[in-house]
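Figure 3 (text version): structure tokens given as input.
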């Protein structure tokens, strides 16, 4: 089984998801930049994994991360981010998407469970309406206070500037 699916390989992942569903597996999907993995991310991955049998993570492409977070991001390129997620042991597949939102990939995979972090509300989760209309469920994992990639990078920059001053 291939574990990382680039934009051009979505149909292969769709076929795999169909096989999993036909064998009675519950498919869970979550997404994000996952630029610098931190305890908030690992807690989300642990939670998401417990919601079903197979966990697929969608990650924004490098171009997509730059559009969302600015020219200095991502810290790590998409393939390193994908491999790091797989190394956590909770993730069955990573799919890279280039669109501004994961709506297209959520629609293509139609997971049984969609999980997002606590900075979202049900009505703001992209793909929630589609998953719910298909009989699935949408869960919001509570945010772990003090853990955000943007804050982590900001704190690191401040420490570096202080050392150089």
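Below: residues designed for each position.
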């Amino acid at each position: 089984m291939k574990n990382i699916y680039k934009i051009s390989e979505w149909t292969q992942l769709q076929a795999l998801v169909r096989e999993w569903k036909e064998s009675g597996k519950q498919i869970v999907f979550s997404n994000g930049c996952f630029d610098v993995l931190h305890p908030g991310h690992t807690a989300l991955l642990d939670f998401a994994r417990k919601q079903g049998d197979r966990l697929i993570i969608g990650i924004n492409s490098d171009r997509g991360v730059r559009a969302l977070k600015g020219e200095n991001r991502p810290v790590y390129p998409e393939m390193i981010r994908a491999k790091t997620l797989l190394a956590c042991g909770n993730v069955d597949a990573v799919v890279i998407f280039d669109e501004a939102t994961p709506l297209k990939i959520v629609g293509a995979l139609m997971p049984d469970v969609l999980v997002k972090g606590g900075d979202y509300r049900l009505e703001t989760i992209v793909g929630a309406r589609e998953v719910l209309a298909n009989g699935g469920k949408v869960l919001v994992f509570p945010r772990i206070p003090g853990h955000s990639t943007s804050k982590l990078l900001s704190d690191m920059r401040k420490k570096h500037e202080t050392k150089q001053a």
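The CA atoms of residues 82 and 94 lie 6 Å apart.
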